[in-house]
Amino acid sequence: MPSLRKSLFAAVLVSATALSPLAASAETILGALSKAYQNNSQLNSARAGVRVTDEGVAIAKSGWRPTITGSADIDFSRSHFDARINGPGSNRSISLTTGNFGVQIDQTLFDGFQTRNNVAAAESQVRASVESLRNTEENILFNAASAYMDVIRDRQVAVLTEQNLQFLTEQARAARSRFDVGEGTRTDVAQADAERSSAVAE
């Protein structure tokens, strides 16, 4: 499949290079395809979608990582002693601070292959998203090449139509001149004028 894409792309480039006149456009087909590849909003959106989908793999792999929880507790108390109870000069206070903390680490040893299947599903979604991006790239590049070749074709058709108009204008003038000297008929002049009018319309 990749070789078919490469051969199709090469055929488009070769035909565009062979058929495009040098002075027909300041933009080459490679430049047009490069700009379409870099600046197309649909393509940039598809690239962003692949990056978002890729984050799902890391999220799925989190099932294999340990879970850490922590807790802390501090208790502060102050006690006052009265001089009447403990005797003279014993009016003092005692401060007591206690605290505890804990850390708990949980590691899942077996979850019934749930994490492994989640990772496989996330990786499959990434591969599908990448293939969708490739399809979008091919369509965008094909449309850009088609538009480029259509412009070249239309310019050549316009040049040929202009040359045909000049030829038919000369034919109509010659038919009128022959009619003026008596060698032609009114029908010849009318036909020449009709052909020229058709070329003007085109």
Share in β-strands = 5-15%
Instruction: Describe the global form.
Output: rod-shaped
Q: What multimeric state do the chains show?
A: single chain
> How many helices in DSSP terms?
6
Q: Measured on Cα atoms, how large is the radius of gyration?
A: 42 Å
Question: What is the total tally of β strands?
Answer: 2
Task: Specify the helix fraction band.
Answer: 55-70%
Q: Biggest sheet: strands, sense, closure?
A: 2 strands, antiparallel
How do the strands of the widest beta sheet line up side by side?
Answer: 1-2
pLDDT below 50 for ≥5 consecutive residues: which ranges?
Answer: 8-14, 16-24
The figure for the number of domains is 1
Mean pLDDT: 83
Helix-strand sequence: HHHEHEHH
The helix-and-strand class reads alpha+beta
Instruction: Calculate the terminal CA-CA distance, rounded to whole Å.
Output: 43 Å
